[in-house]
Amino acid sequence: MAPPSTVTKAERALHDQVNILPRRQLFTALSAICLTLLITFIDQNGISVTLPTIAEDLHGQDTISWAGTSSLLANTAFQMLYGRLSDIFGRKTVFSAAIGLLTLADLLCGLSQNPTMFYVFRGVAGIGGGGIANLAMIIVSDIVTLDKRAQYQGIIGSTVGLGNMIGPFLAAGLVHQASWRAFFWMLAPLGALTGVVSYFYLPSKPPTANFKESVGKVDWMGSLLSSIAIIFILIPVSGGGAYFSWDSPMVISMLAIGGLSTFLFLIWELKFAKLPMMPLNIYKSPIVVVMLVQNFLFGAVYQSYLYYMPLYLQNAHQYSIMRSALITLPLVVFQMISSILSGQYINWTKRYLEVIVFGFSIWTLGSGLALLLDRHTKPSIIIIPLILNGAGVGCIFQPILIALQAHTPKSRRAVIISNRNLYRSAGGASGLAISAAVLQARLRATLPSDYSYLAGSTYALPDSAKNVPAVLDAYMAGSHAVFILQVPLIALCLLGTALIRDRGLEPPEVSAPENPLASDELEQKSPVQQLPSHGIGVGGNEGLELAVATPKEDPKS
């Protein structure tokens, strides 16, 4: 059994959105969620194979890495806010808003006329896509009991894998037959369709509070400070050494502002926020801390692998977009398979630790084998690390989320999911940025002098350089440097599993914090009863932690 935890009084005042569905309604709701996730991850991962074409068409060869970084940066900046917004305004409302943002962003991406426009709209897509992925997990936690959640999270994970699989092929086909713009124009109406489907088929338990009262509950100051901190830290991390010098006044000032904003955010969340986006006492659990750090690290590895493996195939091997997508197919196929199987295993055994250990083990092995790849490696050999990495990813993404929820009180499930996604997205943005810097640094060191200008163009080779062995060797060296970076990061995740304890799927009890004010207040009040499903969602804004030992939560809730 997990150790007791505490929740604030304001958190208990939130209306309960748990809505366990019968099988038929559950099937339709999950279908709507899976359809939306499918479009989201087609958008997210299809773009990777189109970047060389987009860079050439928009004349952005030297900055095209910002297409991925801007999306992940915006995604990260809004992750924490989504959990609390869904607590306050209702899951379906926030989910629908995220779908609308992604749909609009895809339409505008297709209309972009220069790199800046494209990067801005990819940022909007990151906000929408991040919200969809976040809310999908939160909604599943509301409509499925915890002891069955792994099974359905496995299905969700397989849908993500399916989107990862379809995206590159669909994008490559449209680039070849039409243009890269057609890819986004196809996604926009499909996104609108998923919005309609979700509106009619997702359950909803809207808050009873009016709009003004709900707006007043939002942690606006925390959101502002966290966004400033994330943006002002990740921008120099993304561009430092590649687009501007590390010792430049801009980098130094942005890092200083980001660091100060982080400090102020933590103080605000600890002392002043009535309904904090990041309740700092979640960090009292060492196991939760370890798993959040693991999410950051494997987020960095996963995103850089998704972006730079196709580039290795297209640049070092000179494979076409379609062929590179075909070779990377085993990665997502085995991610789908292992996601389903790991969910079934957890559902049967009520255990998750051995799944996580196995996942990180084979992921580490696959990352190590990627170091053996060179410019002449046959596709039949290239797919071996792809298979291992895909199987490892499928055993990690959803099982570690199940583990986090098992160590978190029910009232904080939305918060822990949002914070987990924050760490994974921050890791992804950092991983992409650092990988781009590593690749460019290696290119500067290895490119022939006549082709040194290519160091700023990491995504597309001009025709004049495609048949120059020294240039291809330089791109191979750059890809190899990126692969080297991934090995110690995922190995640290594996080592971290030694600190995780599997206490089953039962969530922790809610017990008394060491807070004399809360204890004094409790002596004058009767025990707090659980709110009904349509309970009042206002009041209780003092932010004091309740000193009441509630009955043990049902693990099926």
Automatic annotation (TrEMBL):
PANTHER family the UniProt entry points to: MAJOR FACILITATOR SUPERFAMILY (PTHR23501), MAJOR FACILITATOR SUPERFAMILY (MFS) PROFILE DOMAIN-CONTAINING PROTEIN-RELATED (PTHR23501:SF78)
Lineage: superkingdom: Eukaryota
Cited InterPro entries: MFS, MFS_dom, MFS_trans_sf
Residues annotated as domain Major facilitator superfamily (MFS) profile: 29-505
Residues passing through the membrane, by range: 26-43, 94-113, 119-140, 152-176, 182-202, 223-244, 250-270, 282-301, 321-341, 353-373, 379-404, 481-500
Broad class of the protein's primary localization: membrane
Subcellular location: Endomembrane system
Membrane association type: Multi-pass membrane protein
Annotated SUPFAM superfamilies: MFS general substrate transporter
Name of this chain's protein: Major facilitator superfamily domain-containing protein
Native organism: Dactylonectria macrodidyma
Any one Pfam family match given in the protein's UniProt record, by short name: MFS_1
Disordered: annotated segments: 507-557
GO molecular function: carboxylic acid transmembrane transporter activity
One GO CC term on file: plasma membrane
Entry similarity comment: Belongs to the major facilitator superfamily.
UniProt entry keywords in alphabetical sequence: Glycoprotein, Membrane, Transmembrane, Transmembrane helix, Transport
